[in-house]
TrEMBL record:
The lineage of its organism: Bacteria, Bacillati, Actinomycetota, Actinomycetes, Kitasatosporales. SUPFAM superfamilies: P-loop containing nucleoside triphosphate hydrolases (SSF52540). Keywords: ATP-binding, Nucleotide-binding. Pfam families: AAA_3, AAA_lid_2. Residues 319-340 are annotated as: Disordered. Residues 47-176 form the ATPase AAA-3 domain. Belongs to the MoxR family. The keyword ATP-binding applies. Residues 324-340 have a biased composition (Low complexity). GO terms for molecular function: ATP binding; ATP hydrolysis activity. This is ATPase.
Length: 340
């Protein structure tokens, strides 16, 4: 049997994660939990939506993550006049060869930064749908595979901002998690002035990990064991959103898949070969809230999707964390994720 160590080679992969984390946190100071969530989504093969007001570092976080990994990176500045073909590509007729030739669009990169995604028209936003879910682009009946790893990191301003379009429900559902950076603390803001007052922190940022290392980490995350009780707990949480009286749209089955995959990545980052209910709980708000649509009455009562998810977490019975079934039994031992 091929072991984990056989696949990744000698040594620990702990250093890879730590290097990327330190590199990104050196740019986004005082927000370690935001950086950790971004890494969790990357290792879970998901896509990240960063939503916050202008000026708090949304684009800088996306660029820092992309520059910290030695891989292909493309940035898409979403504007009202951006066309779907600018994203996916276009077929151009070659006069000499007398045939159509496909010219790849901006989505053909390992990390795609979608800046201010909700400033583009819904039609253009939807151009990302197939590539985000299927990791491929179909043009004129031909399918073009996207590289691996593949991650979309999109930023958006709150819908209340002028000139923004709400993301369609289908596209919000493609993002594994949503995070808000928030304003820095006074101490972090002072440090930012001292360290980065004269230049951009991205100027000196160099890659600290290779794309091949990230692929091996992703392979390791896939082996993390998720006990039936943990899977059922995730299903119960998602199902509760569909019957909640303050929600007119609950989370989809895709949300359940994303929640479990993210929990596996969180377990791997914690150095465990198995996921716990705590992993599901810690990610539930980030993974579920952006998919939910509160009712008009809930909005009048100033109830947010995040508050509703926290309420569901409080109400849903949690499996016994001391039970021995979290670990895989004999014959089920995964190759392992030691040291992530």
């Amino acid at each position: 049997m091929t072991t984990y160590d056989d696949r990744v080679g000698p040594g620990d992969l702990t250093a890879t994660v730590e290097r990327v984390h330190r590199s990104v946190e050196g740019v986004i100071e005082g927000k370690p939990e935001v950086v950790r969530l971004a890494l969790t989504v990357l290792l879970a093969e998901g896509h990240l939506l960063i939503e916050d007001v202008p000026g708090v570092g949304k684009t800088m976080l996306a660029k820092a993550l992309a520059r910290s990994i030695d891989c292909s990176v493309r940035r898409i500045q979403f504007t009202p006049d951006l066309l779907p073909s600018d994203i996916t590509g276009v077929s151009i007729f070659d006069q000499q060869r007398r045939e159509f030739e496909f010219k790849p669009g901006a989505v053909f990169a390992q990390i795609v930064i979608g800046d201010e995604i909700n400033r583009a028209s819904p039609k253009t936003q939807s151009a990302l749908l197939e590539s985000m879910e299927e990791r491929q682009v179909t043009m004129d009946g031909q399918t073009h595979e996207l590289p691996s790893p593949f991650m979309v990191v999109a930023t958006q301003n709150p819908v209340e901002m002028e000139g923004t379009y709400p993301l369609p429900e289908a596209q919000r559902d493609r993002f594994m998690a949503r995070v808000s950076i928030g304003y820095p603390s006074a101490a972090a803001e002072l440090q930012m002035l001292d360290v980065h007052g004269g230049a951009s922190p991205l100027d000196d940022l160099q890659p600290v990990a290779h794309a091949d290392e990230i692929v091996k980490l992703i392979d390791a995350v896939r082996t993390v064991h998720v006990a039936e009780a943990v899977r059922r707990y995730a299903v119960d949480l998602v199902a509760a959103t569909r019957s909640h009286t303050e929600l007119r749209l609950g989370a989809s089955p895709r949300a359940t898949l994303h929640l479990v995959r993210a929990a596996k990545a969180a377990a791997a980052l914690a150095g465990r070969e198995f996921a716990l209910p705590d992993d599901v709980q810690s990610l539930a708000v980030a993974v579920l809230a952006h998919r939910l649509l509160p009712t008009a009455q809930a909005q009048l009562n100033r109830r947010t999707a995040e508050q509703i998810v926290l309420e569901i977490l409080h109400r849903t019975p949690v499996p016994d964390p001391s039970a021995p079934q979290w670990r895989p039994g004999r014959g089920q031992q995964p190759p392992g994720v030691r040291g992530l």
